[in-house]
Specification:
By secondary structure, the protein is of the alpha+beta class. Helices cover 29% and strands 21% of the residues.
C-alpha cells in the first residue's frame, strides 16, 4: 500500500536539502509525473539512465511503494511503427510472467498520449561492462549465474530466447550479490515466426543475424561475454570469418581448457554448441572453483 502523499515531519525538516528524505526515503525533489490512466499509479522522473535507438530509460520514483524503479519509454517515432510496438508489448508481456531472482520484477505497462511505458524493478549494481573480475574463476562463476537465468528462461513453455546476452545487459547486484539479466527488448518465444533480424555485433551468433535465433543463440552470447570478461577486449576481434571460429584466445591469456569450453559455446553451428545452458554451466563449473 502506498504511503500518504502528505509529507511527514522528517521530510519537512530535510526539504530543499536533498532529493530524498534520509529518514523515510521519500522523494523530495523530482520531475515530471507519469500516471497510468487506468490504475492511477504514479511514477515521478528522477533522472535519465540511458537513451538508445529504440527507447529511453529513466530512473523514477514509484509512488505505489515509495521505491526507485526503472521506466522505459519507446521512442516517439518508433511508437508509430507496428513492429516496434509489437516488440515493446512483447517485452512487457513476457516480463510480467517471469519470476526469478536473476530477472527484474515487472511493475506496470501503460499507454498515455500515444506514448508507451514499461515500469520494472531497479537493480542496484554495476554491469559486467563496468566491473572487472578479480580472476578467471570469478568470471566463470558470473557466467554460471547467467546460465542459471537462461535455464529458467529456456525451461518455460514456450521457451524464451533473450537474444541480447552481453556484458551491458548483465548487472552484478549489490545486495544480494548476484548476476541479474536485464533488457528484454529483443526477447522472442521459441517456435514463433522467424525472420526478424536483431543482433548485437560481436555478441550475437550468425543465425541470429539471419533472423533464425534458437536457444543456443543465448549460449553463444554467454561465451562471447566470457571472452570480454577475460580479455577486456571486443570479442568480435577474435572471430575469424574464413575459419568461422574464434582464434587467438590462448595468446590473449585464456588457459587452453577454458578456451576449449568457449570454443564450443561459440561454435558457428548451433548444434555444435552445448546442448543447453545447464550443460554449459556444468562445463564452466571446474573453472569457477579455483
Amino acid at each position: 500500500m502506498a504511503r500518504s502523499k502528505v509529507p511527514s515531519e522528517c521530510c519537512e525538516r530535510h526539504g530543499g536539502l536533498t532529493r530524498f528524505c534520509p529518514v523515510c526515503g521519500r522523494l523530495l525533489a523530482g520531475g515530471e509525473v507519469l500516471e497510468n490512466p487506468e490504475s492511477g499509479h504514479r511514477y515521478e522522473r528522477v533522472a535519465t539512465l540511458a537513451q538508445g535507438g529504440m527507447s529511453t530509460t529513466y530512473l523514477v520514483f514509484n509512488h505505489q511503494n515509495d521505491r526507485l524503479a526503472v521506466l522505459k519509454e519507446i521512442d516517439a517515432d518508433l511508437s508509430r511503427k507496428a513492429k516496434a510496438r509489437e516488440l515493446f508489448l512483447r517485452e512487457a508481456q513476457v516480463l510480467a510472467e517471469l519470476d526469478h531472482g536473476g530477472i527484474p520484477r515487472f511493475y506496470d505497462y501503460f499507454s498515455s498520449d500515444e506514448r508507451h511505458y514499461l515500469v520494472m524493478e531497479m537493480i542496484h549494481g554495476l554491469t559486467l561492462e563496468q566491473v572487472q573480475p578479480r580472476s578467471a574463476a570469478q568470471a566463470a562463476g558470473w557466467m554460471i549465474e547467467a546460465c542459471n537465468v537462461l535455464v529458467y528462461l529456456h525451461g518455460l513453455q514456450p521457451p524464451v530466447i533473450h537474444r541480447d546476452i552481453k556484458p551491458a545487459n548483465l548487472i552484478l547486484r549489490y545486495n544480494p550479490r548476484e548476476v541479474v539479466l536485464i533488457d528484454y527488448g529483443a526477447v522472442k518465444l521459441a517456435g514463433g515466426r522467424q525472420g526478424t533480424r536483431i543482433a548485437t555485433p560481436g555478441y550475437s551468433p550468425p543465425e541470429q543475424g539471419r533472423g533464425r535465433p534458437c536457444l543456443q543463440s543465448d549460449i553463444y552470447g554467454v561465451g562471447m561475454t566470457l571472452v570480454f570478461l577475460l580479455t577486456r577486449q571486443f570479442p568480435g576481434r577474435f572471430y575469424h570469418p574464413r575459419e568461422r571460429r574464434l582464434v587467438g584466445l590462448e595468446e590473449a591469456g585464456i588457459e587452453a581448457p577454458l578456451a576449449a569450453v568457449i570454443a564450443k559455446a561459440t561454435a558457428y553451428l548451433p548444434q555444435e554448441r552445448h546442448r543447453d545452458s545447464q550443460e554449459l554451466a556444468h562445463a564452466l563449473a571446474p573453472f569457477a572453483l579455483g
